Every structure is written in structure tokens, then in C-alpha cells.
Amino acid sequence: MAGEAGRLVAGDRRQRRRAAPRAGQRAALLPPTSGSPRRWTAAQLVAVYRHFYPLFQQAYVELGYPQGYFNDRLVAAIDDLLATPEPAEPPRLVQQKVIYQFADSDLEGRSAGQKIMLRIGTENARTVKAKLREIRKLVAKP
Length: 142
Known about the structure:
The protein contains five helices and four strands. With 142 residues, the chain is an alpha+beta fold. Strands 1-2-3-4 form a four-stranded antiparallel sheet. A hairpin with a 6-residue loop joins strand 1 (9-10) and strand 2 (17-19). It is globular and about 45 Å long.
């Protein structure tokens, strides 16, 4: 049943496998509730982030980054996600063993965050990127 909503892969053993065009619908299986972060504004999300920032910074130092700032790492991570390409068609996949990987070595070599952005589908990625741009404006140093 290639193309079934929520299915990761389209095709069969004789075809080249691609991420199913509607695979991104898996990311939207849970309906957003009024308390869901999906309904929060960027300002609300950043307010929560700022409230807990001292704990984030403490944990960052404890992880071995005593000279760095967690906020700088957050901005770098947001920039990485925003740099995720938007392929014109679902990327081809290969199954080496159990897990699927991108057939394109450029896509497979990308960060874990960018690979997630590619897997959630173009429309979901655009939605996430729009929210990330708003958040970045609020947390990045001017």
C-alpha cells in the first residue's frame, strides 16, 4: 500500500524506495491540544526557555562546556535546522540492514536534526522552520 498515510516508504523490492510522499503525516498524528507547544507562540516558547535557561546552562557546563553558553549552541542548532534542504521530490532510501538511510550520501551525511527535518516532509519542515525563525529572532544576540 505505497503512499498510505503515515507510511515511511513507498515502493516495493523491484522499485527504488523513496520516502512516501505523505510520510510527513506521521508527524501530525497527535492532534494539538490547547496546552500543546504546537499552539504556543514563539514568544511563549522563548519565555519558558528563558525561565529554565539557568538549568540549561548548568547542564551544558556539566556536560563539559565550561567556557560556552548554551544559548549560542541553541542558535547554532536552529541555524543548522534552517539550512536543511528542501528536495523537489521525496528522497530515495536504502535499507542496509534494519534501518532506512538516505541513498544520497549528501543527505545521509547531514546532521541528525536535518535528517529529521527531511523525514517529516516538506510541509511540516516549512512549518517548523517558520517557527524556528521566529524563535531565533527572540533568542539570538542582535
